[in-house]
Each structure stands twice: as structure tokens, then as C-alpha cells.
Specification:
Layout lengths: L13 H8 L4 E4 L6 E2 L16 E4 L3 E10 L13 E8 L4 E6 L2 H4 L6 E6 L11 E5 L2
Parallel strand pairs: 6-8
Antiparallel strand pairs: 1-2, 1-3, 4-5, 4-7, 5-6, 7-8
């Protein structure tokens, strides 16, 4: 069985992965226009302000905007995991996050269903904790 590849944090994404390892969802917010963004970038995706966006803790709450079930693994590393369901989640703060669905929602996903972002236990030598979504309590 091939090992599932893990993300490799870099200067732009490290604060996200550090928060994830503690079970905290972090997003960026522009200091000039106030736009919240994900994935992490060096500049604001809306106004392109020269100041780097600041990191903030997000609520982790959102709704399913779209979903798909993966039946064909993207690589041999995912062969044992199919089928699995991916969801595009619109966070309360605005940005969207693509994550796996877990629990009952993974078996019967619904657009508009409220979810909460959680993190798998950290894995790998760099303690990477991957996000996933579950039905909101």
C-alpha cells in the first residue's frame, strides 16, 4: 500500500498548518480591504495590497456549496481510500475550502448542509493535521 502524500508547508502556508496541528482553522484577512481569503497567499487576492494579509482564527463553521464522490483514485496512494466524498465548503467568514466529508454527510451529502471543519490527528514527520468537514452539531 502506497503512503498517502502529505502537504509540504512553505512560508505562505506554514501558519495554516501550525494552526491545524492544534485543531485550529486559520485563514488570512487583508489589512487594506478586509477580505478574508483561502488558500493562503502572499498578497490579497481581491485588492493586491502590498502588505501581507494577517492570520486569524476562523469559526470552522460553513455550508456545503458543492460536492463530488471520488471513485477513481488520483494516484496509487489513494487506491485503498476510494470512494470518498469531497466538498467545497463556504466558511462563515467567506472563503471556500475543499475538504473531505466524514460521517453521515459523506454517505448522503447535501448542498447547503451546515458543517464544521475538524482536523485528523497529525501524521507524518512534520505533524500534518488534515482538515475535514462533519455535520454541524
Amino acid at each position: 500500500m502506497a503512503q498517502t502524500p502529505l502537504p509540504r508547508p512553505n512560508a505562505e502556508t506554514r501558519p495554516f498548518w501550525e494552526g491545524a496541528a492544534r485543531g485550529v482553522l486559520r485563514i488570512q484577512r487583508c489589512t487594506a480591504c478586509g477580505a478574508a481569503q483561502f488558500p493562503p497567499r502572499a498578497l490579497c487576492g481581491r485588492c493586491h495590497a502590498p502588505a501581507p494579509p494577517r492570520w486569524e482564527e476562523a469559526s470552522g463553521r460553513g455550508v456545503i456549496a458543492s460536492h463530488t464522490t471520488v471513485h477513481r483514485p488520483p494516484s496509487a496512494a489513494f487506491r485503498e481510500e476510494v470512494p470518498y466524498t469531497l466538498a467545497l465548503v463556504t466558511l462563515q467568514e467567506g472563503p471556500r475550502l475543499l475538504v473531505r466529508l466524514r460521517g453521515d454527510l459523506a454517505r448522503a451529502p447535501r448542498i447547503g448542509a451546515p458543517v464544521v471543519i475538524r482536523f485528523d490527528p497529525p501524521a507524518g514527520p512534520d505533524a500534518i493535521a488534515l482538515p475535514h468537514a462533519e455535520a454541524a452539531p
